[in-house]
Amino acid sequence: MIRLFLVSAAVILFLILAIPVMLIEWVIGKFNTNLKDISSLRIVQWAFRVVMRAAGTNMVIIGEDRIPKDTAVLYVGNHRSYFDVVMTYMRVPRLTGYIAKKEMLRWPLLRTWMKYLHCLFLDRDNVKEGLKVILTAVDKVKHGISICVFPEGTRNKTPDTFLPFHDGSFKIAEKGGVPVVPMSIVNSADIFEDHLPKIKKTTVVIEYCTPIYMNELDKDTKKHIGGYVSQIIQDTYFKNKKEYFG
Question: Which of 13, 105, 229, 233 has the most CB atoms within 10 Å of its CB?
Fold first, then answer.
């Protein structure tokens, strides 16, 4: 249980002790939005590195050099753990907002940092509001801010399975004119979710697959883009699971 205590302490201390930093970031944003964006990104990335160090997680990163550096992208990944966000956000090379469930708005300090980081909040039961989130995300990528989404729509609680990918998420890449970067995340639930309430020292493999350019796909593939990207992630997942975990 000591790792759970360390991770919880790291999160709570950051949220409380960083309140003055949050206020400074707000002031900076009044005069220099870009500086606020970059400094907020680096501050939170540092905090997430501390959290993962406390969790004792060994991260194996593959294909990070495949991520385009000259454009925003739409990151798309499978999702089994709360730590998926922490681990992938640590690695982003540029401003990146995540699409999160609206319930995250309940947490005052956390939601402020998320807003600073261009995160968007989705009401999964409201189609009209969901469309507004997609349109906002399209505007973000057009202005150079990457977006990350887990298109299964929720954390998958069954090991080595994949929920259907919602096609609507990919409109962000299609309408925004940016590439899709599939992310395969293997073994992340072994950190916490598979043995609640303990946090376990373990290894997680994250592979960034070859970017997909929507304008290069044929009509049928675009029509079933969720299944197409899901299959790429699944193939990569089982390849890495076999190689690293037997």
Answer: 229
Give yes or no for a contact between 244 and 60, defined as CB atoms under 8 angstroms apart: yes
pTM: 0.95
pLDDT in tens, 71-93: 999 999 999 999 999 999 999 99
CA distance 180 to 210: 9
Q: If pLDDT is split at 50, 70 and 90, which confidence band does 246 have?
A: confident
In 21-119, the DSSP E strands lie at 58-62, 74-77, 96-101
What distance in Å separates the CA atoms of residue 243 and residue 240, rounded to the nearest whole number? Answer: 5
Phi, psi of 71 (to 5 degrees): -155, 155
Q: How far apart are CA 61 and CA 185, in angstroms?
A: 10
Other CB atoms within 10 A of residue 129 CB? 13
220: how many CB neighbours lie within 10 A of its CB? 9
